[in-house]
Automatic annotation (TrEMBL):
NCBIfam families: sensory_box. GO terms for molecular function: ATP binding; DNA binding. Keywords: ATP-binding, DNA-binding, Nucleotide-binding, Transcription, Transcription regulation. GO terms for biological process: regulation of DNA-templated transcription. It comes from Desulfonema limicola. It comes from the Bacteria. This is PAS modulated sigma54-dependent transcriptional regulator, Fis family. The lineage of its organism: Bacteria, Pseudomonadati, Thermodesulfobacteriota, Desulfobacteria, Desulfobacterales. Residues 154-382 form the Sigma-54 factor interaction domain. Residues 9-55 form the PAS domain. PANTHER family: C4-DICARBOXYLATE TRANSPORT TRANSCRIPTIONAL REGULATORY PROTEIN DCTD (PTHR32071:SF57), TRANSCRIPTIONAL REGULATORY PROTEIN (PTHR32071).
Length: 470
């Protein structure tokens, strides 16, 4: 009876061995192949008669398999799994070798099972290719958008500007809020804010220059007011820009100029996502992305107690830096090209710029950055009678240009800050004499009008021809 059941068990084991879809193989302690099933023959592309009794080392040497799990089991005395390719059958196999020990802990057999993972492997390779392709498409998309920038006349030839624009695109894609754009005056902060907004697919874009309004008016503009909130307020009250920007972007330009009380109110609004109109008692929910820009060192401003540190931390969840134009001369040629084309078209001229003037432009410091470059080109196109703008430009740059290597030394103090202050004072005075309005002065100096107002205030200078500046 016992004999009968043993016989049955042997039959079962034989059936498992023969019919297993996995390849099965048994090797002895020297690595010689003692037995293999049909699936192993198919998977390895061999006949049992060809390899029975052969050592796995020999098979590796003859190139019939690229590596042997059995060999590694015998070396390490533990279970080993390897990925093995079989040149004869072109399968990729997951091969697991398991040692069988005797009482004295010596290996007597190695049981090997082999599973075809060619499909998984080819899917894995396919996935890697698809991933690579999608990365490429993503990159191409970014490049495409950068090309689109060209169509929109946004210049980004330099790596630093490309990097900034790529980051900006990423922020647009995730509809990020609380973005702080830092850069000197005229570097393109306003342009970048509009760019981020454009690709975020949200609307509207509302912009305010925090330097252009006195404290009370700025507060009323930003948060709105209820009827009769103050003398002169409209009968019906007025919605604030935060409310008007709902669903879109509110761009707070020159944020560094905001007074401390308005900063406190702004902080609360960003924290609570709601606003309290001036003279109001009920707050209103707001939902808009906020982009702020500054040409000031806000960290420094916090040390001087002119800017709240908590507001800075709230605003600069993401920071984008636009480098000054003098640090990215690669952009100058393209900027000159597009603005020369623009003003030639506008003023029906056919002006050209040669390499000498261009060379000089490339060496120029551009304290007013891109805005100054635009003004230089515009002035030259309008004022120069000759077709070639070279002489005019070289003359103009020599006279007022102060290229980096030709900055005028000052006589009095040797402190750099004093010297800069004195040069600034001299230039501002020239503008105050020549221009009738701060707008004109902004054009003349190649900086924004609010910057002119601020700088005139700092230096105690007044427009002399007109009566605009108080
Ligand atoms: N990369 C650029 N490509 C083309 N034009 C540019 C670029 N950067 C700036 N400009 C142009 O330069 C001018 C000044 O840009 P913008 O007003 O955005 O500067 P800003 O940094 O916001 O200045 P401010 O700090 O004085 O407000 C604009 O006419 C703008 O279109």
């Amino acid at each position: 009876m016992k004999h009968e059941s043993e016989k049955k068990n042997m039959e079962y084991l034989q059936a498992i061995f023969d019919q297993s879809a996995d390849g099965l193989m048994i090797c002895d302690a020297k690595g010689r192949i003692l037995k293999l099933n049909k699936a192993a023959e198919i998977l390895n592309g061999v006949k049992a008669s060809e390899i029975l009794g052969k050592n796995v080392k020999t098979l590796v040497k003859q190139g019939q398999i690229d590596r042997s799990a059995t060999q590694e089991v015998l070396e390490t005395k533990r279970q080993v799994s390897v990925i093995q390719t079989t040149p004869r059958s072109d399968y990729t196999l997951l091969v697991t070798g398991t040692p069988v020990f005797d009482d004295k802990n010596n290996i007597v057999f190695v049981v090997v099972n082999e599973r075809d993972i060619s499909l998984i492997e080819s899917m894995r390779k396919m996935l890697a290719i698809v991933r690579q392709e999608s990365e490429k498409i993503k990159d191409e998309l970014t490049e495409l958008t950068l090309l689109e920038l060209k169509e929109n006349n946004i210049v980004a030839q330099s790596d630093s500007m490309k990097h900034t624009l790529k980051l900006a695109l990423k922020l647009s894609a995730i509809n990020a809020s609380n973005i702080l754009i830092q850069g000197e005056s005229g570097t393109g902060k306003g342009l970048l804010a509009k760019f981020i907004h454009k690709y975020s697919n949200r609307n509207p874009f509302i912009q305010i220059n925090c330097a252009a309004l006195p404290e009370n008016l700025l507060e009323a503009e930003l948060f709105g007011y209820e009827k009769g909130a103050f003398t002169g307020a409209s009968e019906k009250g007025k919605p604030g820009l935060f409310e008007l920007a709902s669903g879109g972007t509110l761009f707070l330009d020159e944020i560094g100029e905001m007074s401390l009380p308005v900063q406190a109110k702004l902080l609360k609004c960003l924290d609570d996502h709601e606003i309290m109109p001036v003279g109001g008692i009920v707050s209103k929910k707001i939902e808009c992305s906020v982009i702020a820009a500054t040409n000031q060192d806000l960290e420094n401003q916090t040390l001087n107690k002119k800017f709240r540190l908590d507001l800075l931390h709230r605003l600069n969840t993401f920071t984008l830096l636009i480098p000054p134009l003098r640090n990215r001369p690669e952009d100058i040629l393209e900027l000159v090209r597009i603005y020369l084309k623009k003003y030639n078209k506008k003023y029906k001229r056919r002006s050209v710029i040669g390499y000498k003037a261009f060379d000089m432009l490339q060496k120029y410091e551009f304290p007013g950055n891109v805005r100054e470059l635009i003004n230089i080109i515009k002035q030259a196109v309008v004022m120069c009678d000759k077709r070639s703008l070279d002489d005019y430009l070289m003359n103009a740059l020599n006279k007022t240009g102060l290229p980096a290597d030709k900055a005028r030394p000052l006589k009095t103090s040797t402190r750099l800050a004093d010297q800069i202050q004195a040069v600034e004072n001299e230039i501002l005075n020239q503008a105050a004499i020549k221009c009738r309005t701060t707008r004109e002065a902004a054009e003349f100096l190649g900086i924004s009008q609010p910057s002119v107002v601020r700088k005139f205030k700092e230096h105690g200078i007044r427009i002399q021809k007109g009566k605009e500046y108080k």
